[in-house]
Design brief:
single chain; alpha/beta; 6-stranded mixed beta sheet; 11 helices; binds adenosine-5'-triphosphate; nucleotide-binding
Length: 315
């Protein structure tokens, strides 16, 4: 078993008889950026809390870094870093004091603590801010500071429960830039929960969860391929002639109507140069529509991720 793997089998949790997680089975490989995606109340926080040993499962099994969360929760905690949904940073300390305090809690000696504090701050782009008061940091920097705290003891797995919730788009983008950089520099498994589709797109592997169950589990690209192909929408000087040319030269079937021509292709980025090369009529506009993760979720649950039922959305 490699150090950063996460495996669950039929993991379950009930709260006073109410089933919040209803038998989740997952395989996360070492070094993956894994996204656990689902709407509010789907069971994401409950699952991550069981994996981090903060909640005891009602049933099933979970191995984190090869250790069973029920058999040896202490050892699991030694091997993971965890950043909670709600900000926890103590605002009266400087960045260095805050990290040094947590390094002491992890039982690190003075020398090791100093080195790890500098390394963790550097990994999330906080180098040079050691003397800054935490309360003077921006929201995104505070969140990065919490991530640095989670890295101090060099865990094999970093759990992030909604790491960007409540942040503005620019702050969210900053967090993601640093998460990618972290992945680039450290071979660490990142398990994060999110209900943002664009964040899930940045993951190597995602599982979509709804009402306590996994409804889809694969790479974002593979999940979207299940939904269908790319669709190119063209407006040309003569759609009928264009459709005939695309069929004769490229073997592409298309449909046309009053608003233009629609062509289904496997990969629009590869097809468009060919389409433009063969067409002998003026092309006024080209638009590409790709299958989205929201459509994948809709396909499996009948609802979009923000909870809108199928009949209420037009895709
Ligand atoms: N301590 C608790 N006691 C009772 N029910 C709970 C408790 N914690 C969560 N729940 C319920 O369990 C279900 C799953 O909640 P959970 O917080 O795991 O979902 P989530 O996907 O993380 O949602 P969010 O994105 O809103 O955090 C919800 O119906 C929630 O109301």
């Amino acid at each position: 078993m490699r150090p950063g793997t996460i495996h669950t089998r039929s993991l379950r949790k009930s709260y006073q008889g109410m089933r919040a997680v209803c038998g989740i089975s997952l395989n996360v490989e070492a070094g993956e950026m894994f996204g656990f995606l689902g709407p509010n109340g789907a069971g994401k926080s409950t699952t991550i809390s069981m994996l981090c040993t903060l909640l005891r499962p009602s049933g099933g099994r979970a191995l984190v870094a090869g250790i069973d969360v029920r058999d040896d929760p202490k050892e699991v905690r030694r091997r993971i870093g965890l950043v909670f949904q709600e900000p926890t940073v103590d605002t009266d300390l400087t960045v260095r004091e805050y990290l040094a305090f947590h390094a002491t809690l992890y039982g690190l000696g003075k020398h090791d603590a100093r080195r790890r504090v500098a390394e963790a701050a550097d990994l999330v782009g906080l180098t040079g801010l050691g003397d800054s008061l935490v309360r003077k940091l921006s929201d995104s920097m505070r969140r990065l500071l919490e991530i640095a705290r989670g890295l101090l003891h060099e865990p094999g797995v970093l759990f992030l429960d909604e790491p960007t919730v409540g942040l503005n788009p620019q702050a969210r983008a900053e967090i993601w830039e640093h998460l990618r950089e972290l992945r680039h520099r450290r071979s660490i498994t990142v398990f994060l929960t999110t209900h943002y589709l664009e964040e899930a797109e940045s993951c190597d592997h995602i599982a979509m969860v709804d009402r306590g169950r996994v409804v889809a589990d694969d790479s974002p690209a593979a999940l979207k391929r299940l939904i269908g192909t790319d669709r190119i929408h063209l407006r040309t000087g003569d759609d009928q002639a264009a459709a005939a040319t695309l069929s004769d030269y490229l073997g592409l079937a298309s449909a046309w109507g009053p608003d233009g021509l629609y062509v289904e292709v496997t990969d629009a980025a590869t097809a468009i140069p060919w389409v433009c090369t063969v067409l002998r009529v003026p092309v006024h506009s080209i638009e590409v529509r790709r299958p989205s993760l929201d459509e994948v979720f809709l396909r499996y649950t009948g609802r979009t991720l923000d909870g809108v039922a199928r009949s209420e959305v037009s895709l």
